[in-house]
Amino acid sequence: LAQLFRPLDMLGMVYREIRQGLIDMEAMFKLVDTPPEVVDQAGAPDLHVAGGALRFEDVRFAYDPDRPILKGVSFAIPAGGTLAVVGPSGAGKSTLARLIYRFYEVTGGRITIDGQDIRAVSQASLRRAIGIVPQDTVLFNDTIGYNIAYGRDGAGQDEVEAAAKGAAIDGFIRSLPQGYDTRVGERGLKLSGGEKQRVAIARTLLKNPPILILDEATSALDSRTEDEIQTTLDAISERRTTIIIAHRLSTVVHADEIVVLDAGRVVERGSHAALLEARGIYAEMWARQQAERAAELVEEA
Ligand code: ATP
């Protein structure tokens, strides 16, 4: 009888793996509904990445036709540059990330990478070019090594370890009794928010994409962990086109350009210094967050 059940057991395992893969993708973007299917045009060529310049040209988008979310958003990130998007909750920041990854199709305007409309290229090639460090990483019920290796098919152990070093989690993994073979996830070792984020960073390093989307965690990490992670993120975004979806302004100070999104429109843009000088929404948000951060530091001390 046991013989009979083994294949069923395996099927169950495969099913769980697939399902968890989907959960991971959904969690990446906090998808509530299943997105409408985005299909490739017949014979769509692969994206050809030269340097990874990313442009939004008058991008419009609505999940529901009656409720426009993005109302004509334009910006350009030169190859290797960093753009930060800030703004109040619900402004449409994470929606920008979903559109770049083509989870949804824009309803107006266009998004280009090195001059190619992302609707005209194959999704597989588009997604290969983009790495995402999501807000909250869902781990597979498997070893921590597997969870990192998942960043790229066929990655060897030495590459996994190099990525873990880059994400500053190698030391932690080595300190575990079973090292890279330690099981994590729901049925294994529970990782802290900061550790999970480092796993996501290591995965992304392994993927080595020319374009990076950092969807900053809203969940509170303590200030020290946050600073340490920030240093790692700064290092991996060097030489890559990076878009930071920011919830805390402390992380965007060094961005080449900051755009302030409010109710689906860019209402301010410029460097940190220029935006402070303009004394607008950004300056106000900055003052408020500085005060909050000071209070947190006092609490932690
Ligand atoms: P936060 O800072 O809180 O993460 P955000 O600026 O990233 O907010 P988005 O997640 O882009 O905001 O959401 C913008 C708007 O789109 C919100 O009003 C939200 O309710 C709506 N929205 C998001 N996802 C969906 C969806 N799958 N279906 C319908 N509406 C959605």
Automatic annotation (TrEMBL):
<feature type="domain" description="ABC transporter">
    <location>
        <begin position="54"/>
        <end position="288"/>
    </location>
</feature>
<protein>
    <submittedName>
        <fullName>ATP-binding cassette, subfamily B</fullName>
    </submittedName>
</protein>
